[in-house]
Each structure stands twice: as structure tokens, then as C-alpha cells.
Structure prediction request, 404 residues.
Amino acid sequence: MRDTNLLQLALGLTPPWTVTRSDFDPEAQRLDIQIDFPPGSRFPCPNCGTADCPAYDTGQMTWRHLNFFQHQAYLNARVPRVRCDKCGIRRVHVPWARPDSGFTLLFEALLMTMVSAMPVKTVARMVGEHDTRLWRVLHHYVDQARARVDASAVTRIAIDETAARRGHDYITLFVDIDQARVLFATEGKDAGTVAAFADDLAAHGGDAAAVDEVCIDMSPAFVKGTAEYLPNAAITFDKFHAVKIINDAVDQVRRAEQKRQSLLRGTRYIWLRNPANLSDRQQATLDALPTRHLKTARAYQIRLAFQDLYDQPSAEAGAGFLKKWYFWATHSRLAPMIDAARTVKHHWDGILRWFDSKIANGLIEGINSLVQAAKAKARGYRSTRNLKAIVYLLAGKLDLELPA
Prediction:
């Protein structure tokens, strides 16, 4: 009697539910707790809430609970179906578990805490359950939390894609810049992803017309999607992506020149770093090169100058600086640098918009790194749906409302 009373208190059970006995099997390392209700007990209808519905019949059910020390624990109960005058025959909801779940609420809370910190497969192995069952739990809480998301105040977003798996499968992330949270993740990286975001934003109380700032890379698809589905948004082209375009041009110059200048072999990362970030060894290598006669060195100087754009004190100063830089780059007689400069010209307004918006995709790049690290630890995910759930879990700042 003392054991059942203690378990009754520990489980927080209230009438008519009572612990009737417990069975411990030391060889199986398993504790089974039996729960029942007295004859004549009445229950609320799980559908309409009508009280005092009589039991119609019962079925035996089992749920995995938190371990008892190192031993697995299970709750076992006769669960009644009730006869409701309005709804007919319905199975009641037990207070310790969700409908259709084989785990108790407290066990699910433990699982969600663990999968926030380690791969689902690892957690499944630790708790002795198949990972498919854990994914069902994760999807339930993430989907429920996303349904409660309030996006009514969203006005500034960043957009970027991240690889879902090897090959050409991608998901696109839409990040609320002011709240530093992933609002939406969807398959693909075309203009249709922006349309899907606009629909999802509306479903969460937001308004696509209220979005006035968007930070993207120079993807034509994102430019097109933003213009069509976020009509009032001013575009800022991500400055790190703009610099990368110039970096790629420098590397093209180096690769072409090293065919004739073997001393450039092994110097790739010297030209992609800023002087202050060079190691002593890299700096010594650079100092030993005849930079005055190298095309790569000229391209490198053009690249360093482009970065100085973002140090200009105003939009007007930035525009004047960029005009001079463009003239230099297009008269450099270095084809890759000329092509890069023309790309900059084509995206001129969005690059200079940075002086007004001061937004960049550094935040979303950090989220991408977090997602890719989680994916690497898990050695990939079986489905895009699973990957999106992990993105929301790690970077969505969701209120999961886990039972305590």
C-alpha cells in the first residue's frame, strides 16, 4: 500500500485514476506500474467536454515513462471508451499522455530536451527506442509550437538557402532579423519559396506588404520572388556575398596566372584573406613574391579596395567611392575582375542600400552553420521534413510548452 501511495503521488494522479500495483522485474530491468479506475467512474467526453459520461468498454494500453533509476518504467492502464449523447463512443484522454502517443508527457519532455542537444539517432540509442518514434514526438511539438508563432510584427527578413543533402537539394530559410529566429523553411531555392513564405507569414498574423527590408544574395530567383511577393521591401544585397564575388574573381586571375607563374602554386588562401588575418608563414610567402609584376597582386588590391566601400561614412560617400572603384576594376585589363565589376554594377542600388539598412546575412550564415553542424553530427536526415523540424527546433526560438 505504501508503494502504491508513493507512486500515486509521484505520478500526480487524481481520481478516478489510481495506482493499483507495481511489478518490478530485475532481470528485465523493467518496472511496470498498473493504473485503474473504480467501477461506476464517469469521465468527460474527449470531443465535446460533456461531463459525467459513463464508460462503454475498456482497452489495455501501455506508455513508456521516465526511467526508475537505471530501469525502464512503463505505465499500464485500462482506458475506457465513453458513451456521449452528442458524440457517440469516444476513447477518453488520459492525463499523463497525449492521444495516440506511446510515451508519457514527462518522457516526451525528456526526449525533446535531449534532441535539442544531440542527434535523434543518438538519443534513440540511449533510451532504447527506434528513432522513428522519436521523430513523431519531435514533429508533434515543433508543429504545435509553429502554429502558435506570432509574426505580426515582422518587417525585416533575411533569405538564404542551405544544402539539404549532397547534390542539388536545398531548403531556403527566412529569418526574422529583429528576433534572430527562423520564421519559415521550405524546399527549393526558387522564386516560389518567397511566395510560400508570404503565405506562411499571413497564416501567422503577418503581412507581406509590411515587410520593408530584405537581405538576400544576388540570386535572380530571390530578386524576382522578393519583387513579386514582398512588394514594399527594399533589397539589400548581402555584403559578404558581394565580397565573395570579388574574391572568386581574384582566384580566377590566380589560377590563370599560375599556369605561367609556378611560384603562385599553393598561395590560394593568401589572396582570399585580409592582410591582418595572414599567418606569419603566409605573410612571409607574400613578402617573397614579386607582387609588383603579378596580375594576381593587382586583382588582390582591387579586392581589398572593394571591402573599403563598407567603411565609407555615408551613402553619398559610398556611391562616390564605388564609382571610382568600378572605373579601376573595369580598366584593370583583368577579365575576371571586369566581369565581377559588371555584376556589382548590375546590383548597384542593392549594394548601396546597405548604408541605409545596415543589414547583412551574417545572422543567417550563423544559423546555416548551426544547421550544417547538426546535420553532420547526425550524418544526414532521412527526409527534408526532418531537417526542417531540426531547423525550427534549433533556430526557431519556439515555445514548445513542454510538460514540467
Q: What stands out?
A: The mean pLDDT is 93. The first strand starts at residue 18 and ends at 25. The radius of gyration is 30 Å.
